[in-house]
Amino acid sequence: MRNILLTILFSLFLAGISFSEIVFTEDFEEETLDSLAERYTDTDNLDGMSFSDDIPLLSKGNQSLMMTSCMVQNYGGSLFKAFVLEFDTLYVRYYVKFAVTQHPIHHFVWFGGMKPLLRWPNPHAGEKPEGNDRFSTELVPLPNFRSVWTPYTYWMNMRRVVSPYYFGNIFISDPPKELVCGEWMCIEQMIMLNTPADSSNGEQAFWINGELILHLGKGFPNGFWTWNQFNVFKDSTSFEGFQWRNDEELKINYLWIQYYMQEGERGQRDTCWFDEIVVSTEYIGPLVEENRIEDEVVFPENNDLDVYPNPFNSTVSIDYNISKSENISLLIYDINGREIAVIEDGLKFAGQHFAHYSNSDLSSGLYILKLTSARQTIMRKVLLIK
Fold first, then answer.
1. In whole angstroms, what is the distance from residue 216 CA to residue 222 CA?
2. Quick check: 143 pLDDT over 80?
């Protein structure tokens, strides 16, 4: 177990994520389900869970967690984690796989905030948050929309359908991203809370296999509301942004790994697998094949290599310092270690240097800048969001 955890942390280190940014990790390498349950503040239907040797490609572990639903007998299962610390911005990355016979999914993985924080889920289905009590979002393949992945969100300015109840707002990307069963997927979600509390500059986003599918914030993207559904449409008005809270003491403080099935015939069985969960205050990205990136990596504290803005939209500026005249190379790689471009290569005199890089053909995602000299190799992660 300890070796697996060290491997996970080293992979995150290669990706440029410092240990201080990591909030929680889960690789499901526990020996028993009871020992797994001790890592969470609440669980549901442990009897419907088991460990499996089906793991994602590039995983260094030996097992994943399999959750099984047997209709009427149970409705799936869940693991709930109340965090000790609270956050204004949080990213949740996990790998998931559904059986090829998967039936419609009712609810899936949630994270959010509640005040006061409880040690168990308290979703308040059908109720609009007040802004000082709670907010939540999940990413779920909605059966009513051809199993298209969409956030399902409770927030203080949420819309409702024609009823006295408020059910989760959904956000349809353009193009929509449909669920693919029978293979592992890397899912990542992000919430950034509004600050100050009376503003609407909050955001949320999600990625699938490292590809940014949808990013919502004040002024982007364009689209229109139909009752409780926001549809991305370029020839419409811009999204107003999220006011998640009206009290800055309300923060992100829990993760709810849920597999909840509600529709089907008695005895109907559905299965999904989870693995490689990481919660961080910065973007995480998919697993990285270690041998594609050199092991001699330095993350110095003297700002020898700075990048800004980060995340960037079109052009990233690079500021680096060398203590003596020498040959250097400055390259950019994708998350799999494939070289994208040589930004600078050759003799540089001692002192401060500046460079810029832009490429309109790059897709949104995580990239790595690598500065190499005879003395050291320095790497920085940069996030491109279009």
1. 9
2. no
